[in-house]
Specification:
Distance between the termini: 59 Å
Helix content: 40-55%
Shape: rod-shaped
Number of helices: 6
Largest sheet: 6 strands, antiparallel, barrel
Strand order of the largest sheet: 1-8-11-10-9-12
Number of strands: 12
Order of helices and strands: HEEEEHHHHEEEEEEHEE
Structural class: alpha+beta
Oligomer: single chain
């Protein structure tokens, strides 16, 4: 081989190497970097906060729902009955408080005065009966002592005297109760009675508010815009509080967990723009949101054992997935240029 031929061959090898390097670097000298990643998305379990029977489920798997969309309804029949009772109790408590605040009417005072007068008249009659009964008992005791009367007559007189005493005591108690009732009417309600009536009214209001809140909870609304990942109950089922009825997946704000080898980590900066490429060729723009400070082994869902044995850093890539191209668990490739600057 001549010297000229050797020079020509060296020139050809150098030209080929330059072409290879051009495929890995940009025109400005930046180098293309790649890492494997998998799509993740927030998954929300929509649960019933109150127990109840499922009345309707308005979605199926795969439906796209907006935030606030009705997903399911629970029966409110028992809550409606409880609300009616609570409202009736509130009306009663309100009427009682109103009466206490207004005080007694003149006719109520006149009626109480009449009851007191009747009780006093009854007391006077009972006292007269007692005096007579005591006199009879004393007379028959003397007759028995003189052997002029029978013991049965004495015992009967003693029983009549005991009965008269009981009637007199009862009459005195009725006079005392009637007088106290009249005094209360004349004085008006005590502060303690008004406070107790206010407390009963407040308790009724709290019960109504609680039942009305539970009634709104019987309508289950989507907490976010997303896709129904699972319909977990059917109409007619009885749910306990906290039992999920559907699963919603927030695909709009899906992200990528990419696993980057240690030598490439310095080429990534927070906020840096990257390209996410699916196996089908779709390309989306993302941004670096998080770089783990700790190394870990490559996840098990990586294909080969050699790759799983490597230490990598997890990098989160946020993407705009409102078109729904990315699905949870989908493998993707993350591509970026080393040395590129974060977007302004």
């Amino acid at each position: 081989m001549t010297k000229r031929t050797m020079l020509l061959m060296r020139a050809a090898v150098a030209a080929g190497a330059a072409l290879v390097l051009a495929g890995c670097s940009g025109n400005d000298g930046e180098t293309t970097r790649r890492a494997t990643g998998y799509v993740e998305a927030a998954e929300v379990h929509l649960a019933a906060r109150i127990p109840g029977r499922v009345e309707a489920v308005l979605v199926v798997e795969g439906d796209r729902v907006d935030k606030g969309t009705v997903v399911a309804r629970l029966s409110t029949a028992e809550l409606d009955l409880a609300l009616e009772r609570a409202r009736a109790e509130r009306q009663q408590a309100e009427a009682q408080l109103r009466l206490l605040r207004q005080g007694a009417r003149p006719e109520e005072i006149r009626q109480a005065e009449a009851q007191l007068s009747a009780a006093r008249a009854e007391q006077a009659a009972a006292a007269a009966d007692l005096t007579a009964a005591e006199a009879d008992e004393a007379r028959f005791i003397r007759l028995v002592e003189r052997r002029a009367g029978s013991e049965k007559q004495r015992d009967d007189a003693r029983a009549r005297r005991a009965q008269a005493e009981a009637r007199a005591r009862a009459a005195a108690e009725r006079v005392e109760a009637a007088a106290a009732a009249l005094d209360r009417l004349r004085a008006g309600a005590r502060a303690e009675e008004i406070d107790a009536a206010r407390a009963r009214l407040a308790a009724a209001d709290a019960q109504i508010a609680s039942l009305e809140h539970d009634r709104t909870e019987a309508t289950l609304l989507a907490p976010l815009t997303g896709v129904v990942g699972g319909r977990l109950v059917e109409p007619g089922e009885l749910l306990a509080a906290g039992m999920p009825v559907a699963t919603l997946v927030d695909l709009d704000r899906a992200w990528i967990n990419a696993y980057v080898e240690e030598p490439l980590v310095p080429s990534l900066r927070l906020g840096e723009s990257v390209t996410v490429v699916t196996d089908g060729g779709d390309r989306l723009t993302g941004a670096v949101a998080f770089v783990s400070p700790r190394a870990e082994f490559t996840p098990r869902n990586v294909q080969t054992s050699d790759e799983r044995a490597r230490l990598v850093y997890r990098v989160r890539i946020n993407v705009d997935n409102r078109e729904g191209i990315l699905k949870p668990g989908m493998p993707v490739e993350v591509v970026w240029q080393s040395g590129s600057q974060p977007p302004a």
